Automatic annotation (TrEMBL):
Gene field: urtD
Name recorded for this polypeptide: Urea ABC transporter ATP-binding protein UrtD
Organism: Pacificimonas aurantium
Region forming the signal peptide: none
SMART domains reported in the protein's UniProt record: AAA
Source taxonomy: Bacteria, Pseudomonadati, Pseudomonadota, Alphaproteobacteria, Sphingomonadales
Gene3D superfamilies: P-loop containing nucleotide triphosphate hydrolases
Amino acid sequence: MSGPLLLAVDGITVDFDGFKALDTFSMTLDKGETRVVIGPNGAGKSTLCDAIIGRVRPAAGRVLFRGEDLTGLSEQAIVERGICRKFQAPGILAGITARENVALAARRDRSWWQAFGKGIPAEEQASVDAVLERVGLADRAEVKAGELAHGEKQWLEIGMVLATGAELVLLDEPTAGMGPAETSRTAELIRDLGDTRSVIVIDHDMSFVEQLAAPVTVMHQGRFLKQGSVEAVRADPEVISVYLGH
Ligand code: ADP
Ligand code: MG
């Protein structure tokens, strides 16, 4: 179910010393929508995430979130407005438990953890446990995050994103390094996430993209190429040609 316009990426260009990683790229996302962004390696997908979250500054164009121009805001300021990015590399703390990682994510203020050490305040236990349940890690809550399996670490990170309460979630290659069973489980989790959040998922694994059953935006060489259902973009001659590299 989609609502009013949430995000508008409006003609952004990101220039790395004359090389345009993004070239007048535009897309919009409605509140409650899940969108998949695909494109060959180097298409500019991760740079798009970086531009939305304020990690790189576009040379031209704007990013509007709930109508507010985010261009020029710091990453911290953008996160505070309700956008959260799950990185390609895991961002969990290995030495503390899965439950503690979720509790920490729920608090943006990490100094709280240093001040109080171990021990999640009683009033926060229930919401932390609800997140662990939702990502299927309830029975792994007391395991040190560093000892979780690869897939479990990714799901913990998705749980941490959930715990932040962010309205827009950016997931950059959430299935990297996963086998088919873990990939299916991740697709299920993201569909579940889509019930309460707006989500942009970046990936190039077509079997995963099919399982997400969401509209797809195709990028190529920093530009918008196509948008449509998975079936439509898969059958599109231009999309096939950029994927095959001719
Ligand atoms: P994707 O995620 O679609 O594989 P990226 O957004 O990571 O693509 O990269 C798009 C292009 O921009 C690539 O050619 C990449 O080499 C280049 N690029 C990305 N980041 C930088 C950077 N910091 N400096 C220079 N070039 C970069
Ligand atoms: Mg990338």
